[in-house]
Design a protein that fits this description.
Length: 226
C-alpha cells in the first residue's frame, strides 16, 4: 500500500500592523463644529407673538368665568381680547362664539322672574298656556322661598291636576286648605280641578273640616287672573 505523502504545513503570513486611525486635529474639528453651528436649523413654524400668550391667558379666564355662570365677568374678559389684541385673529372667532353664549344667558336671566309675585304671575301664564312643567318649576321656587304660601301650593295642585297626577294634586290641595281654609270653597267650584272630581281623596279633602291652626293665619293674597 502506497504511503500518503504529507503536505507541508503552511504557516500564516504575518502582515504588517494596520496604521492607527488618523486623528483629526483639534483645530480642524473646531472649525467643522463652527460651520455646523452656523447652518440654519429647520423651523417648525413662525414664532408666537408675546401678545398671543397674553390674549390666551385672558381668554381662558373668560372661559372659567363662563363655567362659573359669572356671565358679566366673562363678557368683560372676552371682550377685552377683541379690544386689546386685534392682531390675534385666530382667537377672535372662538371669543365671539362664547360672547354670544354670555349674551343669551344674560337675556334669559333678565326675562326670568325674580320675585315671588313675578313667579306667581309667570306660573299663572304658564298654566293658562298649558305649560304645566314650566308652571310647576316657578311654583316650586316660590314654595322653597315661602313654604306657607297657600296660593302657590294651591296652584301646584291645579298644575298637577291638569297633568292627571292625582296623588300630587290632592296632597298639595290638602296642604293649601290647611294653610287657608278658604281654599276649600275655592276648590269646590274651580274648573281647573275638574280632572279630580272622581277621586275619592279629592272629595274627602273638600268635605273634611278645616284643621285648627295654632299660629296666626296670614291674610289671603289675591290670585292673579288665569
Amino acid at each position: 500500500m502506497a504511503k500518503q505523502q504529507r503536505r507541508p504545513l503552511l504557516r500564516p503570513i504575518r502582515t504588517a500592523p494596520e496604521p492607527a486611525a488618523t486623528r483629526v486635529p483639534l483645530s480642524v474639528q473646531a472649525k467643522a463644529d463652527q460651520r455646523v453651528s452656523r447652518q440654519p436649523h429647520a423651523s417648525s413654524g413662525p414664532p408666537r407673538r408675546s401678545t398671543y400668550v397674553e390674549a390666551v391667558a385672558i381668554y381662558e379666564k373668560g372661559l372659567q368665568a363662563l363655567q362659573r355662570h359669572a356671565y358679566a365677568e366673562a363678557t368683560e374678559l372676552l371682550s377685552s381680547v377683541l379690544r386689546q389684541y386685534p392682531e390675534e385673529k385666530e382667537l377672535h372667532e372662538r371669543v365671539r362664539l362664547y360672547l354670544n353664549i354670555c349674551q343669551r344667558q344674560a337675556i334669559q336671566r333678565e326675562a326670568s322672574p325674580q320675585t315671588i309675585d313675578e313667579r306667581l304671575y309667570a306660573a299663572t301664564l304658564a298654566i293658562n298656556g298649558g305649560q304645566y312643567d314650566q308652571a310647576i318649576a316657578h311654583l316650586r321656587l316660590v314654595r322653597d322661598e315661602d313654604p306657607d304660601n297657600d296660593h302657590a301650593i294651591y296652584m301646584l295642585a291645579v298644575a298637577h291636576a291638569q297633568r292627571h297626577e292625582h296623588a300630587e294634586a290632592v296632597a298639595h290641595l290638602e296642604r293649601a286648605i290647611a294653610l287657608n281654609p278658604e281654599n276649600r270653597a275655592l276648590a269646590r267650584n274651580d274648573p281647573d280641578l275638574e280632572p279630580l272630581r272622581g277621586d275619592e281623596a279629592f272629595r274627602a279633602a273638600l268635605e273634611a273640616p278645616a284643621v285648627p291652626r295654632q299660629d296666626r293665619r296670614r291674610p289671603m293674597k289675591s290670585r292673579p287672573a288665569r
